[in-house]
Specification:
Distance between the termini: 49 Å
Helix content: 25-40%
Number of domains: 1
Radius of gyration: 16 Å
CATH class: Alpha Beta
Largest sheet: 6 strands, mixed
Structural class: alpha+beta
Low-confidence stretches: none
Strand order of the largest sheet: 2-1-6-5-4-3
CATH architecture: Roll
């Protein structure tokens, strides 16, 4: 196996372990997939940098959506990233930002860029449609264009 194929395979294995451990709520394993944990949530402009901030992000989002899970749709490779298209779903059972839980489910297609420096995962940058999530939770009006 060439070095580039080996690196590609290693990166893919890291991303799949990351995603699977999130689904299993094994967040210590998820954190260990990073060289330095960092999440960037593009839709909200939030950045969680370091193990404490990322752990708090996991805790807060799983309190609001205890059954949150991802389902892999497509996986793509770039020179310094693995790009994942996935479906994210969950049920609004707790407060995320002080709102009353609606008990409603959401399902939305998203993309995440898992950014690497060689074989080290250094960031997960997530792109998603928050308007669709809020509409499905009954927290924003639905709209069409």
């Amino acid at each position: 196996m060439t070095e580039s194929k080996a690196l590609r395979a290693l990166r893919e294995a890291i991303v799949l372990e990351h995603m699977d451990s999130e689904n299993d709520h094994e967040f210590e394993t998820t954190l260990s997939t990073f060289h330095h944990p960092r999440y960037e949530i593009v839709a909200t402009g939030q950045v969680f940098d370091g193990p404490e901030e990322v752990s708090a992000y996991y805790e807060r989002t799983r309190q609001a959506f205890p059954d949150q899970r991802n389902k892999l749709i497509e996986l793509h490779h770039a020179d310094d990233a693995v790009i994942v298209e996935f479906e994210l779903e969950g049920t609004h059972r707790g407060s995320l930002i002080g709102e009353e839980p609606t008990g409603r489910p959401f399902k939305v297609r998203m993309t995440a860029f898992f950014l690497f420096e060689k074989d080290r995962l250094v960031c997960e940058r997530v792109y998603g449609d928050m308007a669709t999530v809020l509409a499905q939770l009954g927290m924003a009006p639905e709209f069409t264009m």
